[in-house]
Amino acid sequence: MAFMYAMWLPIPIMMYEILHNSILKIGMIFGLVYLSMMIMTMSLQTGHIVHSEKESQSQTISNHMMATLSGPFELMANILKSIWVFFLAVAFLEQQYVVMASLMGTISLLIIYFFLLLVKDSLIKPNKFLKRMVVNPYFLNLEMFCLFLSLIIFISSI
């Protein structure tokens, strides 16, 4: 997974170069930081999995470390991704790419979901509403796949 995110690292730069929008320069920074954070967390998770297999650590310690390496850090990265996608939506709207702007605008609304999950993970005793919120890895992976697939298709069609 870290290698996959590393291969996507040029996408924020390419989007800035293609759309050439001054607001997207700020968004590009958010995109690069998001991808860098994901590369770091995936690399740390891989290292931890290899280490725990070699050392035959207990499952409790292993689960605690994986939650530490992935939980709040990945949620913060996803908040940065949502900010980048919002800047993309604005840039697409200014360039009259309405379909891409609406798609990016919809994806950027997930910042609310990511923020609430981050708050839930950060609290010792979350309230009843936050306790019901659950991270759905299938949804997160599908959202990420759709985002990068649409960006790659857009880059390829230009």
Distance between the termini: 27 Å
Q: Tell me the β content.
A: under 5%
Broad structural category? mainly alpha
What series of H and E elements makes up the topology? HHHHHHHH
Tell the overall outline.
globular
Count of runs of 4 or more consecutive helical residues: 8
Which range best describes the helical content: under 10%, 10-25%, 25-40%, 40-55%, 55-70% or over 70%? over 70%
Count of distinct strands: 0
**Mind telling me the C-alpha Rg?**
17 Å
- What does the main sheet amount to? none
Q: Give the low-pLDDT segments.
A: none
Mean pLDDT: 89
Give an overview in words:
This protein has 158 residues and is mainly alpha-helical. The chain is globular and about 55 Å long. The mean pLDDT is 89.
